[in-house]
Each structure stands twice: as C-alpha cells, then as structure tokens.
Amino acid sequence: MVEAATKDFLNYLQYQKRFSPLSLQSYSNDLSQFTTYLQQEYSGSGLSGLSHHHIRDYLAALFEKGLSARSVNRKLSTLKSYFKFLCRTGVLPLNPAQKVVGPKTKKTLPTFVDEGQMQKVFSELTFAEDFTGQRNRLIIDLLYQTGMRRAELLQLKVSDIDLYALQLKVLGKRNKERLLPFNLNLKNSIKHYLELKSAVGYKNDVLLVSTKDKALSAVALTKIVKDVLSQVTTASKKSPHVLRHSFATHLLNNGADINAVKELLGHTNLFTTQVYTHNSIEKLKKSYYQAHPRSGN
User: Fold this and answer.
1) Are both 48 and 119 inside the same structural domain?
2) Looking at the structure, do residues 82 and 218 belong to the same domain, yes or no?
3) Which of 244, 245, 250, 262 is the catalytic position?
4) CATH number of the domain where residue 251 is located
5) CA 212 to chain centroid
6) Are 189 and 196 within 8 A, CB to CB?
7) Residue 57: which CATH number?
C-alpha cells in the first residue's frame, strides 16, 4: 500500500504539478528515507497506523544524524505534501503531519560573490582553449549573466538560444517559460563554444554536454562552479545558486528595478526577491559607517 501511494503521489507531482526531474528525485529520496525509518523502527506499521508521534520521532532521528534545521524542515515539507495528497485522495482520513511543527531556522542572507571577484573570473583566470575549458567558462558566464537556476541551465537546448535577438528561453519551476537577455560578449562565447562542440563531433541538442556527448550532470556542473569560484573567493558556499544570488544582488546594488529582477529570476512572489535587497542595505551600512563623520567609527 505504501509503495502504491508513493507512486501515485510522485505521478501527481510529475504530471499535474509538473515538478522538475531534480525536484521529483528529491521528493522520492525523502519518502524512501522515511519509509526505511518506519520499517526499521516500527516494523509492520502501515499508513493507517501513523500518527504525528511517528513523524516527530523521525525528525528527532534526523537531528541525531547531524542534519541541519533547514534540511529537516525540507524533509518535513515533503511529508506534509505527501500526507495532504493521501487525505485528498481518500487513502487516509486524517493528516498525521498536520500537528507537527518544524524546527526554527536562523534567517541568513543569501551568499554572493563580490563584483570585483566576479570580474577576476573573466579577466584574470585562465581557461583552456579546448572544448572543456570553454564549456566551463561558458557555464560561469551563463549562470552569472542570466541568473538562471542550475536545473534550468542543465536542460537548456541549443534551440532555446536566439543569438540574433540576444535572448534565451528557459523552462522554470512549474514549467513556466521566461526569456532572459544576454550581451554581445556572451553571444560570442556561445558561438565559439558551439563551434568547438561541432568540431569534436558532438550532436546532442542539449547545450552543455560531457566529453561523451551526454547531457552534463548536476554533480559535474556543481563541481565545475566550485572549482572556478575557489580561485577567487574564500566563501564557504561556492555553488551554482551562489552565482544566481550574485546576479540578483549585483543588479539591485546597481539600481535595477526589483520587479524586473523578480521577472528575470522567475519568482512568483516579490517577497522572495526582496531578500536580496538586504544585501544592498548591508553594503550601504558599510559605506555609511566607513565614511560618515558622525557614524561613531
């Protein structure tokens, strides 16, 4: 019964909610981990026998394993969605996760790379002139110049790029399409990369490919970004999402309209975009304390 219910839920996310493959995999992993826990700790307890006590015990076990409050909350969110679906479809009469409250998390500002450090990536770092080197440089440029998500970049096809109009089409969350502009320098980089890609005989329509002409994996792309950013910053986080944060923060720092940034990022709610204004405010505070004669410093 559990396996069938889980399959139905994942199908619902895929075909009705249109979740991305990466999101589906994340939900599947969370549910598999929860099911394994139930089998080990409460053997024989089916869905009908679940209560909020089981879920609280599971969250406590996650904490004992060293998971952060943020990670625990994400797994709890998966369970809440799962049991809500089961109640709506009549599998369960009551939602056992309804009474469960997640742990409090500290509000942190998005990590971003300084503008000067990003300039060093393109002006001082050396990328090999071969296919791999130019692909890696293009990855950084695309993420930083467009602010797209990792999943959006990985599924970007050559046919999604309009070199004449200087724009590309991405498929975001919930299969929402949006157009992102880019400049002439990035156009030339894309053209050069495509020439190298063709020269080595790669024909995959996905823009970013491995040396085996397969779509580049999320793990490989993340490693490439981390390796490059490690050469210009000592920040603890060096993920593709950090470049997305940098994109938004630098736009707002330089006077971009927040509604325009919201559209470029593909956010549904302006509140989600407003978190980046805090970075701008922190920068203003730093300038104030350093320069104003009455700032107390």
Assistant:
1) no
2) no
3) 244
4) 1.10.443.10
5) 25
6) no
7) 1.10.150
Active site residue 276: yes
Domain that holds residue 75: 2-88
What percent of the chain clears pLDDT 70, i.e. is strictly above it?
A: 92
How far apart (Å, rounded) are the C-alpha atoms in residues 83 and 106?
27
Active site residue 173: yes
DSSP code for 157:
B
Tell me whether residue 106 is one of the annotated catalytic residues.
no
CB atoms within 10 A of CB 144: 22
Whether 178 is catalytic is no
Q: pLDDT band at residue 270, thresholds of 50, 70 and 90?
A: confident
Q: Answer yes or no: 223 catalytic.
A: no
User: Residue 262 catalytic?
Assistant: no
Residues 6+ apart with CB under 8 A from 227: none
In the chain, how many domains are there? 2
- Among the listed residues 54, 135, 137, 149, the single catalytic one is 149
| Residues 61 and 135 occupy one common structural domain | no
Query: DSSP letters of 135-155?
Result: HHHHHHHHHHHH---HHHHHT
**118-122, 135-139, 172-176, 250-254: segment of lowest average pLDDT:** 172-176
- Prediction pTM value: 0.70
Are 123 and 255 in the same domain?
yes
What tokens does 296 get?
Answer: 């107390």
- Residue ending a domain, among 70, 88, 106, is 88
